[in-house]
Task: structure prediction
Amino acid sequence: MKKIGIMNSNISARVADMGHMDWLAVGDAGTPVPEGVDKIDLSVKSGIPSFMEVLDVILLELEVQKIYLAEEIKVKNPDILEQINRRFDGDVSIEFISHNDLKKNIKESKAFIRTGETTPYANIILESGVIF
Result:
């Protein structure tokens, strides 16, 4: 049994498989997932697990160089945006794109991790960096 880090075997495998500039998407319970994208569904009920809980565990293991967020998060969900900003603290590039473009770009991700989050625009695409 794995002792630390990501316990979900599907997420752990996806993170381990990430190469430089690969994408991994994490989002709220309502995010539509394009056909053909590996959906890892963690939602249990409304709010469980939260978007930030899942993101925090992923960030323990994944080196991130850039993130993509919906422009709409600035107005529609500033609390989540503030928490995301604290996690990255200026260490990664942030690109804001329209929510529609973010949803379209999920199809380029290695996987989409669905949380139980029920606040708007709680979605992110993580671009993998390198540790050297």
The chain has one domain: 9-128.
